[in-house]
Each structure stands twice: as C-alpha cells, then as structure tokens.
Amino acid sequence: MKRVLIATEKPFAPVAVKQITGILTDAGYDVRMLEKYTAKAELLEAVKDVHAIIIRSDEIDREVIAAAQTLEIVVRAGAGYDNVELPAASEKNVCVMNTPGQNANAVAELAIGLALYGIREFFSGKSGGELRGRTIGLHGYGYVARNVKRIAEAFGMRVLVYTRYSKAQAVAEGLELAHSLEELYAASDIISIHVPARGEHIKSVSYDVMKFLKNGSIIVNTARKEVINEEDLLRIMTGNPTIKYLSDIEPEQKTTFQEQFKGRFYCTPKKLGAQTDEANTNAGVAAAEQIVNFFEKGDQTFRVNV
Ligand code: 3PG
Fold this sequence. Notes:
The strands form two sheets. This protein has a seven-stranded parallel sheet with strand order 8-7-6-9-10-11-12, with helices on both faces. The protein has a five-stranded parallel sheet with strand order 2-1-3-4-5, sandwiched between helices. It is an alpha/beta fold and 306 residues long. It has twelve helices and twelve strands. The protein has helices at 14-26, 40-47, 62-67, 86-91, 104-119, 143-154, 167-172, 181-187, 207-210, 230-239, 254-260, 277-297, and strands at 3-8, 30-35, 52-55, 73-76, 95-98, 135-139, 158-162, 176-177, 190-193, 218-221, 244-247, 265-267. α3 (62-67) links the parallel β3 (52-55) and β4. Helix content is 38%, strand content 17%. The chain folds into two domains: 3-102 and 275-297, NAD(P)-binding Rossmann-like Domain (Rossmann fold), CATH 3.40.50; 104-267, NAD(P)-binding Rossmann-like Domain (Rossmann fold, 3-Layer(aba) Sandwich), CATH 3.40.50.720. The structure holds 3-phosphoglyceric acid. 3-phosphoglyceric acid (3PG) binds next to loops.
C-alpha cells in the first residue's frame, strides 16, 4: 500500500483536505497528515516511510530527501518549486512535480487587490487614484499574469507585458509588448511581478530597472522576494518618496521597510496569494490526481526535475 504524506506548514482549507484525501483513499492509499508543524524534525520523522509527499511552500531539501527512504514522488501543490532541492531529488530518482495554473486566479486577484490598496493610499482616507486608464506592466507572462491581465482589462487598464518565454502567447493575445524590463518599468503606473525565483529572474528587479519608474508608481510582488534586489529597492524608495511597494512575501529587511516607508509599504501577514478554498482545492486535487496517475500509469506530466 502506497503511503502519501500531506505536509503543509500552512494547511490547505478543510474543504480541500477532504477532497485530496478522498482521491487518495479511493485509490487505496494510506494518507498521513502533518499540518502546522513548527520544527523540521517533525517533517524528517513524518517522511521516513512514505512513498509520496504533497507540499505547499514546505522546504524539501537534501536532508529531507535523505530521510525519506522510500520516497518516489513529491508534488508541490502550486506553481513555484524553488522550495524543493531538485538535484537532491534527481540523485535519488525522486520525481518532483508542480501543479501549474491551479492557484493562478487566487494569486492574480490578490495582485489586483494589492494594487487597489496601494492606489487608494492603504485605505487611510487620503485621496487616492483609480486603476481605470492606468497602465499595468506585467513582469512575466505565466498563468498568474494572464489572470491579472484579464482582471486588469475589466478595470479598464492598459496592459503592457515583458516576457522572454511566453512572447508567442502574448503576441497571439494581441498584447502590447515592452522590449526590455527597463521599458516596462518606465511605462507602467503599476508593475506586477510574475516571474519565478530561478536563473536570470533572481534580483532582476534591480536599481538599473527601477530607476526608470515614474513618480507615483506602485510595485506589486506576489511572486518571490528573491526576484527583487532589496538593497536597490530601498535605495529607490529612499530617493523617490512617491514609489510604493506592496508584497505578499516578507522582505528580508521588513522592519526597515516598515519604519522608513510608512504609507508606502505593505506586506501581507503570511504569504496568502493562494490561500483560498478554491485555489487549495484546485491545486490539492491536481496534486492527488497526479500522484495516482504516477503510481497507476507511470504518468510523469508536470515533472520539473530531470
Ligand atoms: C505558488 O508558488 O504556487 C504560490 O506561491 C503559492 O504558495 P503557497 O502554496 O505556499 O501558498
């Protein structure tokens, strides 16, 4: 009997857990839960004899993979898999998958929510602005950005995109493309970041890009903190008191941002872009189904490691 661990420091909504466990138990698997754990030791103990693990932003590093002696597959219920040490998994022939697109609408709605919160001066009562007629610059054009585009257009915004990997998709949709990041940041009123914490995207939001920001620009980050060069952002926000930064991910120097940029910086209390019943269900159910298909049919669609 296959043993599947659902290891979520930030648990799925109960409605999602019910459906995930239903799929796995119907397949004849033994489902184990490790929710809201506070110490890595708990994870190391829980993974010992399982064949599959479903995670969210939970860190699966070399030590966890070494402790999971019978592990065959890890599914990250979500998009970003920067929390899984892929080479360590590959060395042990552990398949790693994600569930692309499944929580994208939830993250996109939060991105627009943060943009609104920023342009309305953090609901302070101070006179703000409106999204209609403003330009939103999408930094990256994956599943989340495509949902942001749909919602932004409904708000009457002009959408501009910078992408290297989804150019054909953006062109097919008739989108206006920026030819460089610099151009995107210079032309947008609101920047929404949608690139993964990988490769050239790391610290890609640098001083040389942000120095082109217009007065009053808002940067919304629902992606990862690693894609921003924090020192550069601090420098830009110090130099230009009209720039705002709203993030779903705590910056390393959160206290500095809070103290220095009152009324211009906001960060959600816990990364919550994908924290909806719908997103948890979509991503969790996809993860469970991918595990069943992997064990029963050898299906490795959505595998992200080689
Ligand atoms: C993702 O990569 O899918 C999102 O960042 C959501 O992450 P979470 O599952 O930790 O909320």
